[in-house]
Amino acid sequence: MGRHFLAALTALIATCGGAWADVWPAKPIRAIIPFGAGSATDIIPRLVFEQLAIEIGQPIVVESRGGAGGTIGASAVAKAEPDGHTILVTSSAHTITPAIYPNLSYDTAGDFVAVGALGNVPNVLIIAPSKGIKTVQDFVATAKAKPGSFNFATVGVGSAVHLSAERFRISAGYDAVHIPFKGGAEALTEVIAGRVDYYFCPIATALPHIQGGRLLGLAVSSPQRASALPELPTTLEAGYADSDYMFWIGIFVPAKTPTEIVAKLHQALQKTLQGPALRQKLATLGVEPMPLSSAQFEAQVRREIGTYAAFAKAAGLKPN
Fold this sequence. Notes:
By secondary structure, this protein is of the alpha/beta class. It contains 11 helices and 10 strands.
């Protein structure tokens, strides 16, 4: 009797999963972004979602839920109903949170399924022109000449821009003071004014200020040069080994979401990202394509969790 009941229950669950996939999406999608408004992780998804909503035939309601390095928003999605109607839109910072926040209410590797990447956004090392620094080499020499008095902006411990800055600092071999801000807009304001020395800022938000002459870009942190600023060298080209950092933005769903729904969302996302108008908009913001399958993106995420656990320990990264 018990065996028959369990078999029937298993079949029912499988049937329900298929049924959910058949009608998905049955209502608006709630997209939780665990970082502040105005950041690259906020601006870029909103552009994509305008078109993705048309593709899936349902509105996508964006909910900004920042704090604690993105873990508050991630926790909300981990606990959400796994029916494909609540998604997490986060950055590569997602892969280092388990190393920095040891008491998370969720398992970064086990409680989410990677759906797909929106793209990667190279970070650019920016300073105010008033600093009188023209090259990366000048920058490092100045930093080494002022041990401990040079400072840099981020949007919080463990954020993608923080990791980018720390990888470069450790590679170049200088000390600097970390100044975390609540959001990218505030960090930019302080760097433009010269009150903070530098910032590894996403190209998407730094570009207008570089083009307007309010900021000077010295190098990009991506492994290859950025198409939006092709004249700038990478930090690797500038001679700093292991200084590169890939800042990606991607979509995740709760782990028990039916595979059929994950596949439908992935397919809709890929079709949306291939639209010529959207591709042009994203390119203008410096977003580089990441045409990965869900399985490939999942594998990359899991690799990074291991890589950045070791890095966080070596760099001594801890919550504010």
